[in-house]
Amino acid sequence: MRKKLLIISKMIIVIFLPIVILLGSLKAYALNEEFYMKEFKKYDIVQNIHINEASLHKIATGIVNYLKDDEKDLLIFIEKNGEYVEAFGQKEKLHMKDVKILFQRGYILKNISLFLVGFAFLIIIKFSNIWKDILGKSLIQASIISFVFIFFLYVLMNIDFYQYFIYFHKIFFNNNLWLLDPKTDLLIQILPLEFFIDIAQRTLMLFLGIMFLTGWIGFVLVRHVMKI
User: How far is Cα 92 from Cα 60, in angstroms, rounded to an integer?
Assistant: First the structure.
């Protein structure tokens, strides 16, 4: 019974620890106003759609607060062509409502995964005399699996990011509200495909960095056991 419990705990760490770190890495950028503003500047959004920087900052703050659920409605007024108008139309707001639901599900998955990982750590420490070896190997395996997964994901992204971006929307959204018009819809004007390429790349780089550190910690634990 104890052996099975330790095996299950090890599997939980290998599977769910990368999920916690990946979702945390995504949150570091997707809910970061400064990142949005840097992207707006990088793609010259002010000049391209004739909205001042103050309005863009208001939009970035509004989107982040909405996705954090600090704001219940995505009601943002900005200055455009000398007039104060609502930033987003009904279709855009309905799509962002779907996005918010997806983020909330991500929060739930992250919290459940974190609880499972913490519980697995406690089980291994409590019921194993060689807990450092088991934990160390679990962290190493989690890192290796993560690197393999990200390698294949990176290859797919470089083959055709747009195509897999479409697949993502078809899988996670059950409507066509995400099919916005770049000529009229502000949301897609300020968040072009390049924005999502950047956020995906930075999320994966941060994730890999943390998983590398995780693997190194695992290596140190296993090496420490071998020296005893």
Answer: 15
